[in-house]
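Journal club side-thread
Mid-discussion, someone asked how the predicted structure for our own chain would compare to the paper's figures. Pasting it here so we can look after the session.
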Amino acid sequence: MVDTRWQSFLTPDRGREYLALLSYLPLKGFRKMLTLQRQSSKVGKQLAETRGPVGYSLRAKLSSHRFWTLSIWEDEQALMAFVGRDPHRATMGLLQPYMGESAFTRWTIRGSDVPPSRDDAISRAEAGVTK
């Protein structure tokens, strides 16, 4: 398993609520792992240039080709603006045929709880907890 360190873009206001998003991204096989890696680099650069992300991290279980992104956003509008622009938008289209069933879990998080634990976020997703 490979976990990236939490990458912060801004210091969260400890008393404010933010939008948390855990994305589960299972590749159907190893064929597109290099493509995913290349595109992830581009999307990471996009994050750094986008208004609204508080921070993010990635988890990869390479042997089973399972990936998770954990991100915190100022609000839904900032997240959707990011998702709707390239290279993120193009990456979704490029990889969609090679993906298993993706899952997205959203919840609110206080700034004092940022960064969240990846394990807690994954447990929340598995339990279907959204608030």
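Post-session note: The beta strands are 2-3, 7-8, 17-26, 53-61, 66-73, 103-110.
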